[in-house]
Amino acid sequence: MEKQISIPTRAHRSLPSVGLGFWKIPNESTAKLALEAAKIGYRHFDCASDYGNEQQVGEGINQILSEGICRREDLWVTGKLWNTYHRKEHVRLACERSLKDLQIDYLDLYLIHFPIALAYVPFEHRYPAGWHYDPESESPRMIPDAVPICETWEAMERLVQAGLVRTVGVSNFGTSLLRDVLSYASIRPSVLQVESHPYLVQSKLLRYCQQEQIAVTAFSPLGAPSYIPLGMATASESVIEQPVVAQIAQEVGRTPAQVVLRWGVQRGTAVIPKTQQIARLKENLSLFDFELTSEHMEMISRLDRNQRFNDPGVFCEQAFGCYYPIYE
Predict the structure, then answer these.
(1) What number of H helices and E strands is found in the chain?
(2) Which of 38, 253, 269, 275 has the fewest CB within 10 Å, making it most exposed?
(3) Helix, strand or coil for residue 141?
(4) Taking a C-beta distance cutoff of 8 angstroms, is the pair 152, 85 a contact?
(5) How remote is the C-alpha of 217 from its chain's centroid?
């Protein structure tokens, strides 16, 4: 396997193009998974307070550094500001809590997780805060808070100035919100993280980010598999089952998953697939000793159906009692 390629950012260095996402990784598996991933060659860990496993990722990172697998400066660790901490007085507190749990002195990247501000939930009340304001109430629901993004972004910039994070970015933003941030940012966003896969190509958004020199990380790069256990997708919606993907995989001698991940990397995005299986960890990183032809790339891109699996405009109402569209 060749060394990972990296994607330039406005950060102190480049973003490794393949990372490991820790969403939905069980706490009891997280530390060992981080350690094994580092041994295989992963240097990009995608974390968030909302995932509920940052303490365990921190245990893994501590072991990685203790065993000399790599240096701290060789790791790229991403964290995310949760929705309940958007007010300026809460941003640094949230970041410092993540740093404490991850057992590191700085984050390479800190993202606004969603353009969704919710009522503050103190750490001592509940952490991670989750979506419901009070899960124990008779009718638990989200409680939105009217916090301007500019207020949150200014507090994010102060984290860079304080040396707590090396760079800042956003997640689940579209072009209009990116333009808004760019209109007042003293420190421009380095990275946009969004859902993207062959069913949700997002070519205009990617082109805009390239124009503005904002790196893009694609979460759920294989589409449906992450959402099938949650009842948010069905097995029949899996892109790796598409005949055209199987055909290309046969032609290049790779698995369908590798073909789809290579498509993501080759179009200029970083990808953060999730797996707990060591064999899959190796497979997902083995993308750099083959290329897809321009015809292959176009065949995969034509699968686009603008299908979004992770949509607050759908799941917030269904699960958290609040209609909250953000993409329309």
Answers:
(1) 11, 10
(2) 253
(3) coil
(4) no
(5) 7
Q: What is the pLDDT of residues 88-142, one digit of tens each?
A: 999 999 999 999 999 999 999 999 999 999 999 999 999 999 999 999 999 999 9
CA-closest candidate to residue 281, choices 18, 70, 75: 18
Cα-Cα-Cα-Cα dihedral of 63, 68, 73, 77, to 10°? -30
pTM of the shown model: 0.96
Those residues with Cβ within 8 angstroms of residue 177's Cβ, 6 or more apart along the chain or in another chain = 115, 149, 170
The domains of the chain are located at 7-233+267-274+306-320
Distance of CA 283 to CAs 40, 275, 279, Å?
10, 10, 6
Do 45 and 77 form a contact (C-beta atoms < 8 A)?
yes
Listing from the earlier edge strand, what are the strands of the sheet with 215-219?
A: 20-21, 44-46, 76-81, 109-112, 168-171, 191-195, 215-219, 270-271
Q: In terms of Cα–Cα distance, which of 140, 126, 144 is closest to 320?
A: 140
The first and second tokens of residue 133, run together, are 């304001």
- pLDDT for the residue numbered 14: 87
Show the low-confidence residues of the chain (pLDDT under 50): 1-2
Give the three-class secondary structure for 197: strand
CATH homologous superfamily for 7-233+267-274+306-320? Answer: NADP-dependent oxidoreductase domain (3.20.20.100)
Q: Residues with Cβ < 8 Å from 80, sequence gap 6 or more?
A: 47, 48, 49, 50, 110, 111, 112, 113, 171
**Catalytic center residues:** 51
197 close to 309: Cβ distance less than 8 angstroms: no
Concatenating the DSSP letter of every residue in 279-302 gives: HHHHHHH--SS----HHHHHHHHT
Q: Which of 328, 262, 325 is nearest to 293 (CA)?
A: 262
Helix (H) or strand (E) holding 153: helix 149-161
Hey, what are 113's tokens?
């997780």
